[in-house]
Amino acid sequence: MKKNNIIIIIFIISALITLNKLILNVDNVEISDTDDMIDYTQLSSQRLFDTTWKTIRDNYYDSNLNTQNWYRWRDHYRGKIKNEADAKVAIDTMLASLDDPYSRFMDKSEYSEQNNSINSKITGIGVNISSVAGKIHIVNVMEGTPAQFANLLPDDIIFSIDGKEVNGLSLSEVAKLVKGPENTFVNITILRNNNKLTKRIIRKEIKIRTVKSSVVDRNIGYIQISSFIGSSTPNEFLEALEKTKDTQGLILDLRGNTGGLLPNAVFIANLFIPTGKIVSIVGRNGSKYDINAQDTEYLIEKPTVVLIDGGSASASEILSGALKDYNKAKLLGTTTYGKGMVQKIIPMPNETGLNITVAKYLTPKGTDINKKGINPDIEVKLNIKDVKNNKDPQLQAAKNIIQKMLISNNIPSKI
Q1: Options 179, 204, 330, 339, the catalytic residue
Q2: Is 295 a catalytic residue?
Q3: Tens of pLDDT along 131-153?
Q4: Catalytic residue flag (residue 314)
Q5: Alpha helix ranges (H) inside 244-379
Q6: Which of 156, 324, 325, 330 is catalytic?
Q7: Is the domain 124-207 a CATH 3.50.50.60 member?
Q8: Residue 231 is among the residues annotated as catalytic for this protein
């Protein structure tokens, strides 16, 4: 193994451990990604509600809890929680009062699915989804999955699953309907250009690789990161760098990447940014913590273009925002989603979990992108007609820009 590869692998282990320790001990501002994330303590449904009420009170980003008397919820449900269904309804109602789309309670089944996603293991069809005005949109389709074989496409709107209409359902409710035992079938009706199409799709264990790479135009490395949720994402990114090491330019594709674990985004940003602030975390009551670059002994210095769109959110925006602020890359595409909040995954009793907003983040220059997004340096749009015709004007524009950057830097192109 080459010396540089050894250095990178040693760094990823030490940096991620260091980063997690720092984040786990600063004002409760964290994204947890450890394997030991299940609380097997068994409590009555009433005590589960009470414990969750207290956890939200003590950890939620807004200490005013959306300008309400938080104690009213404890008093309202005192002695009324009889079973797990009661507890979930009460907790969901309580969380809804925060007017926060990112904070949610997960029952045992939902929490298990969350942990499976972190461990890159899931049984389903292979799509990422988002909710827009109550409608469930397919953001992207994973390569080699049942969804791809069934010809599902980005921007398809899921209308119903096994006959149940999904408009207005939460993402977790929709995911629960889609997922199921391996080798069983699910019937999904989609809307595409105002036409209804029904697909019968087999469920399979989806081996989630979040990074893929290739060489385009002979001298440009192309690396796509579909998600930052997997604990293997940093290693996969290093493998992609190794596969594209002989190229002279780099395209980093974050389109449709809805985010994931904060340390993953910080790690990749650190490979471009050797010193300085990568992201600032602003916690409860305005407490602030800066996450700074660590010494990697490895630096990506190739001309780089980052592809972004309205589906690029959260960790994707942390990475693209940092690269933009340091002028390490040109951003190309359309404005990102605008999710500038940080969630903490908290194991709760009865093998349940709480995903709660505990902070917001700022780019290195102090920009708050929440509900605003990050504007591209170069705007290029991609529509459903392009997808159907297997055209990608954003990728083509990125390749053209890289070639121009190579010429302006007097780097001879490979033939």
Answers
A1: 339
A2: no
A3: 888 889 998 888 889 999 999 99
A4: yes
A5: 262-270, 315-325
A6: 325
A7: no
A8: no
